[in-house]
Amino acid sequence: MDDTQIEMLPMLGEFSSIASQYEHIMFYYESGIQQIVAKLQILNNEFKNNHERNPIENIKSRVKSLDSIIDKMKRKGIPLTTRKREIKDKAGVREICPLISEVYQVANMLVNQADVEIVTIKDYIKKPKENGYRSLHMIVLVDVYFSDHKDKVPIEIQFRTIAMNFWASTEHQLRYKKSRVFTEEMQQELKKCADIMADADDKMQNLANVSGIVQPIE
Ligand code: 0O2
């Protein structure tokens, strides 16, 4: 099934047909997610075998719900009738590491694999968003073998530390809660919290470097 099918969103009046398209296409994205998650788990286990510690704290994944796709298209002013692949994070994997060096280490190990192709990289760790959001984002194409053909399935991977994830999860809830109060002051407070998280990440990284448990970031 082709990725463009979900993009050929008819008008909202034809919602039921979109919903059935979505059901079909979920399987395609879930297969890609399974591939990426398996790769990350193998890297984590190998690392544990060789170094007696895990660089990955947690792996989460999801196929974006149809409601979220439509919400995001509205938010970005993308017409629901577009045929372009405007929403690139329909399938997402979030990989959480204790340390910043491990975020980059795991990301490099993954994209060095022959069946994983980088489409885009956005490094919000080196260049955080204005609101303080930090994470390393990649969209990759991963090979998936089906019964009679191979497809390259696009997956968005967000690599973060535990501290970055703590901030982003809480900020997401505050910002997107339907009955929300989200003032300018709250935004400023959140930015301060993001700075505290960034400082904690740096300090933890320094401690880990000094202790010799990880290689310093170049
Ligand atoms: P959800 O509900 O988490 O899925 P592009 O895809 O390049 O056209 P986009 O989508 O803005 O532009 O890309 P970007 O910046 O890489 O962000 C994609 C996802 O990163 C978001 O998906 C969030 O998951 C996360 N993200 C980005 N910025 C922020 C932020 O400021 N705070 C938090 N908490 N998360 C952020 P969705 O669909 O917006 O949300």
- Biggest β-sheet strands, sense, barrel: 5 strands, mixed
Low-confidence stretches are 1-13
Distance between the termini: 42 Å
Strand content: 15-25%
Chain-averaged pLDDT:
87
Helix content: 40-55%
Radius of gyration: 19 Å
- Shape summary: flat
Summarize the helix and strand pattern as letters.
HHEHEHEEEHH
Count of DSSP strands: 5
Number of helices: 6
Which strand order spans the largest sheet, edge to edge or round the barrel? Answer: 1-2-5-4-3
Cofactors, ions and other ligands in the entry: ligand 0O2
Question: Could you give the topology of this structure?
Answer:
Blueprint: H1 4-7, H2 15-51, E1 58-63, H3 66-75, E2 91-97, H4 100-111, E3 116-123, E4 136-145, E5 150-161, H5 162-176, H6 184-211
Parallel strand pairs: 2-5
Antiparallel strand pairs: 1-2, 3-4, 4-5
The chain binds ligand 0O2.
Description:
With 218 residues, the protein is an alpha+beta fold. Helices cover 49% and strands 20% of the residues. It is built from 6 helices and 5 strands; from the N terminus they run ααβαβαβββαα. It has helices spanning 4-7, 15-51, 66-75, 100-111, 162-176, 184-211, and strands spanning 58-63, 91-97, 116-123, 136-145, 150-161. It has a 5-stranded mixed β-sheet with strand order 1-2-5-4-3. Strand 4 (136-145) and strand 5 (150-161) form a beta hairpin. Helix 5 runs antiparallel to helix 6 (184-211). The longest helix has 37 residues, at 15-51. The termini are far apart.
